[in-house]
Amino acid sequence: MVKITGYETHDVRFPTSLTGDGTDAMNTDCDYSSAYVALLTDSDLVGYGMTFTIGRGNEIVCAAIKEVAKRLVGKDTESLFADMGKAWDYMMADPQLRWIGPEKGVIHIASGAVNNALWDMYARSRKKPLWKLIVDFTPEELVRSATFRYITDAITREEALAMLKEKEAGKKEREEEVKRVGYPAYVTSAGWLGYSDEKVARLTKEAVAQGFNHFKMKVGASLSDDLRRGNLIRSIIDDPQFLPPNTTPRDPKSPALQGKNAGPTGAVLMIDANQVWDVPEAIEYVSALQEIRPWFIEEPTAPDDVLGHAAVRKGLKGVGIGVATGEHAHNRMVFKQLLQAEAVDVAQIDSCRLAGVSEVLAVLLMAAKFGVPVCPHAGGVGLCEYVIHLSLIDYIAISGTMERNVLEFVDHLHEHFVTPCSINAQGRYNVPMNPGEGYSIEMHKSSIAEFEYPNGTYWKGRGEEGKAAEA
Ligand SMILES: [Mg+2]
């Protein structure tokens, strides 16, 4: 019998604000950070998890992680693994911690870190990467692993089971297919708001040469800047001369590209406002960006405003631009309402704003039922490592569709992970295959020693003020 005996947390911060990486209309000064946890046992088995923040406040999340992780100390791992849905309910049900949520804010993202660590431990104990652990589940086991509380008006366990059984027959074939071709990705690293036009042009050309065909640009600070940058990006991605050698342009009319406003080479542009507008302003501003032909506007307004998103979506129908959101949707109930209100064309789950894999599975099941594609949020630090697992689960076991979906990829900070994600020559995520990598989120001990805040070797003696002076 293996028991959970304790936990460690680390407040790890990377000084990304010095380079303008990660800048958008709302978040102008980000130090990508990880509130990291290791769940320890009385054996060699360890479970790693984290949630993402952008700097200040990361220590508050670490304090909350300790409170949530305490509930698991002393528990037998096999009895937790036997019913992960029940384990999730238990983890979330602290009668006092619940008051500082419920199921939102710091306590919820801390719960995400802990639940992900438990899933990582489960996958490691079975010597499988997380996605493989879950796609090998029977439909009954997968349904049991998700949380259904408060969503049965949108999907029942019985409906979920029937959907999964229908997908059973093709699982093996889809697994082989995605291992061979990789999972479609899109690139955000070229379009940060803090970058100069020269840097945007260079990075966009590089991304096209790497095989990417979906690109995302940050908008919302200045309409004239957005139009200029959007036209600059379109002039590169729509020009066949920049495609990798011997590449045939994709057919913009192919089923995978329908409705995405793809250009002549099959390239797709998306835009992201990171919540800066009120509803009428969002409709007016995005309508004025029609000439750069985006597929969707991401986070046009406040992330909790379900009916506001529905209004924006309705308001943009005439110009053929869709709506995406979800990276700040704090729980499955927000996704339920977004789907019920027909407020989104694309659902963008976040691997650690939702409270871990068990809650993510609930959202994947709902999205599949409503026929809305899931394009997870990534970037930051560690998010790309996490989300490839979730998209593989979605494709192989749940929705069965891949080519219309795209998974965000941002090429920052992967070197800090023991089993970093990777992209193939066609601009698609490789499938994680290491049997010991669990949920792929274990960080190098040397990275923690360097970037732990405020006493790691990078931060010691610098502090926030020292960093500002240096910059
Ligand atoms: Mg975003």
UniProtKB/TrEMBL annotation:
Residues 197-319 form the Mandelate racemase/muconate lactonizing enzyme C-terminal domain. InterPro entries: Enolase-like_C_sf, Enolase-like_N, Enolase_C-like, Mandel_Rmase/mucon_lact_enz_CS, Mandelate_racemase_C, Mandelate_racemase_N_dom, RHMD-like. It holds the Pfam family MR_MLE_C. Residues 238-261 are annotated as: Disordered. Its cofactor is Mg(2+). One of its GO terms (molecular function) is hydro-lyase activity. GO terms for biological process: amino acid catabolic process; carbohydrate catabolic process. Keywords: Magnesium, Metal-binding. SMART domains: MR_MLE. This is Mandelate racemase/muconate lactonizing enzyme C-terminal domain-containing protein. It comes from Agrocybe pediades.
